[in-house]
Amino acid sequence: MAEPEEAMISCRVCGAGIRDRALHFGETLRCRRCHEVVKASGRGHLLHVAWALATTGMILCVLSNVYPILEFNVAGNTQSNRIMTGVQGLAGQGYWPVALLVFFCAVAAPFLYFAAVWYVAGSVCMGQRWPFVGLVARVAERVAPWSLVPVFAIACMVSVVKLDLLGKVTWEAGIWWVGLLAACSFALTQVFDREFAAKRLGGLP
Amino acid sequence: MTDATRLELSRALVVAGAILYIPANVLPVMTMTVAGDVEPLTVMGGVQELYDSGLPAVAGIVFLASIVVPLLKLVCLSWMLLLQDTDILRLQRTAALRILHQIGTWSMIDIFLLSVLTAVGQLGILASVRAEPGGLFFAIVLLCTLFAADFYKPHLIWREATT
After folding, report:
1. Do A45 and A147 touch, CB atoms closer than 8 A?
2. Residue A1: which residues within 8 A CB-CB, separation 6 or more?
3. What is the pTM of this model?
4. Does B108 touch chain A (CB under 8 A)?
5. Which of A37, A156, B55, B145 lies at a 20 to 30 A Cα distance from B6?
6. What DSSP assignment string belongs to B103-120?
């Protein structure tokens, strides 16, 4: 007997038809032709976790920007470093496009991503369609690849190795906040299911 | 944005990235001054310095992120764009594009490294780090590859199959 038409899903990548079926917890349904995930189960209930992580992330964003990351000492002269010190240094040397890129990827995009996820997840968790939530969901999707705190954290580690060859480097409190922010950012990208959130938003008043 | 525009933009960005990849790697990214000793460093020079200092693992990470990943992105994107509208290795191309999206941003390590070193290296003759034009070219190459990969959506690989 032929399957009913509503039981088929079209793959958004290659357009192939895939027979829909109920999935077990954590299971994914992949397109047979291009292997794209067309349906996933199990991350929906994690929107509360995403909301909590986004809240934590926004607080960590502030802390990691307020506290110095490391202190560099050469012959008794010290220089401490916040995330913004590098941005200001690059801009001051006339490399403002590079400064802007660092500012966007290490400061603005992470905060914007956490704030956007907070708003979308909050709207779904509270069961209310908050104003402009569709637009904010698109912002979250667009800025996610530019939120590069984990890469920044690795760059801090490498810079310390490099600076250690020139002088004395001391970690400051800010590095812990940057590390936690990187972990929080990574965890949020794993638990926040934008498509599930969009589906739930569609059903909200 | 239409598929044709996406392809045009992606092609233009890959060509621009490939051209700028040369000055990005030839010109110094930064100049380090330590106790009056001035040392200009290219991307590869920074890797070499880490390796010579007995830190091969760190040098390996920076080499992969700063040299291999941008080059791999340019080569892979060129390969995909050349095979556009053919049915050759579609599955492999889709998988390669997914990998590119995952690893692409790791090239930013070098730009962040420049930022952190510039921040602490403001101790005048004792120790200072100045950004150099290579850093700007490197940042533009990264942006070109990131946007080219972003414009080139996986459905474009399967375009013929769906029409």
Report:
1. no
2. none
3. 0.87
4. yes
5. A37
6. HGGGGGHHHHHHHHHHHH
